[in-house]
């Protein structure tokens, strides 16, 4: 069956109990196309308190039966949903592209594939996430059950609107929870379109619901007394507010996937071509709007000049790949909207006023839409904002270093701890440095990548908890210990 949603027929209503319904709140969101700034909708629903309550009530009603659905049946529903997401991948990516600007080949296809894969991966865990039991030598048999929490919620950002849903909704649903999704106000359409697929896949009413809205809707979910968990991906300031709301309401469980300013450390003995390719791709994929982008590149002085020459060339080549995301051969689209564009340009302008030396880029491309040249600063002041803050655009800083000791200190001297990379052909050094990084993820001769099986997330202010692998299932369940007295 064809998906009847398209840029000419955008989904704008909330999805409760397997129905698209008008929101009770009369607030609406406007969404623009970043390729030219044109208005594409000014009437997308903002779910208010009554809508959130209605979704929670529907989820509570659905939960007792959903948690007891046969594992094989739940698996089949999730796999069917994955098939549908894949089948309608081109249409879903287009619904993302109209508001995010991400080209299909370079990002849209990956993102939709990530969502489908997350559903399949977690569906395969359903009959294998077995709990524990402990011996009865002391007279008591102990059984530990992994129990679902009940009504859970996911609040997602705009930079990977479909993939992020998979990372949250799939483990939540696989473990028997009901799940309420709150997409970003900047990219609501592909998320809202999933309602049609949720119903077609066979999720019972109330199990998987979607509430579009802005931060006000997110706050209602985070502070709701009957929601037991919120899994959030977004900025650090919002993450902190969510943790506070969770604590002040019902101490709901919280997973936070937040920002980064990830270092890539390139040693003299690396494979130079490989290091340049990974670091250049890392900061330009999705126009640099990636939480784990390697945005601080530290290069040892012996290869610094050669690296700079090649990195500059790579960025100039990338600049030729910037353009209208609908056109073939374009790999890098615009920034998501005017606010993000102005924010990134502000960093670039201030960066040129004494924070560092502009090596390449820095200019707007064209005179409409929000396109920017991939940009690199060298000789940066280590206390400057371009060196310390997350820019969330195609802007990297490069700095030379002498010793491993010096650069590990600088790499870890930050409140972020999401991703790090080390480039060297010395296995001892690679492993030593990998263990010395204070971050949730480390790439050796690669950087800014993820896998479905392994924990995804950050240390320090980059987050709390982990997604992917068994960690995601644990994050959506509560262990319950049952103690059986065998002594009478
Ligand atoms: P954001 O924090 O502004 O918004 C994220 C989501 O939170 C949106 O859905 C928004 O509506 C909602 N929200 C805003 N205010 C809220 C509030 N007070 N209460 C509840 N919800 C609220 O972030 P963004 O600009 O959409 O995304 C960019 C940020 O996300 C960057 O910092 C990036 O590094 C981070 N990010 C992290 C990861 C990761 O996995 N670690 C992945 C992608 C993006």
From TrEMBL:
Residues 20-482 form the Aldehyde dehydrogenase domain. One of its GO terms (molecular function) is aldehyde dehydrogenase (NAD+) activity. It catalyses: an aldehyde + NAD(+) + H2O = a carboxylate + NADH + 2 H(+). Pfam families: Aldedh. Its EC number is 1.2.1.3. The active site is at residue 257. Keywords: Oxidoreductase. InterPro entries: Ald_DH/histidinol_DH, Ald_DH_C, Ald_DH_CS_GLU, Ald_DH_N, Aldehyde_DH_dom. Gene3D superfamilies: Aldehyde Dehydrogenase, Chain A, domain 1, Aldehyde Dehydrogenase, Chain A, domain 2. Belongs to the aldehyde dehydrogenase family. This is aldehyde dehydrogenase (NAD(+)). It comes from Periconia digitata.
